[in-house]
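note to self — DONT lose this again. spent like an hour looking for the file last time. sequence + predicted structure for the chain T wanted, 253 res
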Amino acid sequence: TIVLPFNDLEGVEKRLKNERVASIVIEPVLGAGGGIPAEREFLKGLREFCDENDILLIFDEVITGFRLAPGGGQEYYNVIPDITVFGKILGGGFPIGAFCGRRDIMERINNLIYERPHYSFHGGTFAANPMSMTAGLATLEILEDGTLINRLNTLGEKIREKLREIFEAKGVDVQVTGAGSLFQTHFTRETVKDARAAFNADRKKLVNYHLSLISNGVFFLPTHVGALSTAHSESDIEKLFSETENYVKRWGK
């Protein structure tokens, strides 16, 4: 396993020079890494690099799948991976995980077409659970036209802009990252374009901010990315803003 730099195509090319790798796995928007979106040109360049070097491009869309757009991060960025991994939202709240990809790749798990060593076994005790499949299908039908997703994305952009405004008005050094209905705050002056920059931000201030929100009725998993759902209303968003303003007034810089 080789850890590659995020949002740095030149760094990726340099790191993989003279290396032989089967695939590159990437989140279109880093989740635990800080809610940091990939730059469009970075993903497009990564797609071209993989094509030129016979490397599979794999998107981890557990968080971004059916959230950024009906077609997930790949529709949002207009970059198509060779394999995609899904979870969570695909089951409409029921346990589920899935992977999909190009036909010629997926056929490798079909033992009616290929034999070993060209065939790869795939199966599981709970594979294709009927209840999860039914819930997932219903969820996808609701999200298919993009209306709900577009509403959440609009609210997400509103949140990112307003949080920047609140902190900047009080002279607090904060970078607000995210895409679509995802958002995260980083207490730092440094532009946050990768997980390293997010890690270098003041985590203690972030924990205190999130704990302040929690104690006043706005739940956050401390230090983790914020994510909107269809259950959130405009009043919920205003509550986030008012409690953020209260936090800034109490703690300032």
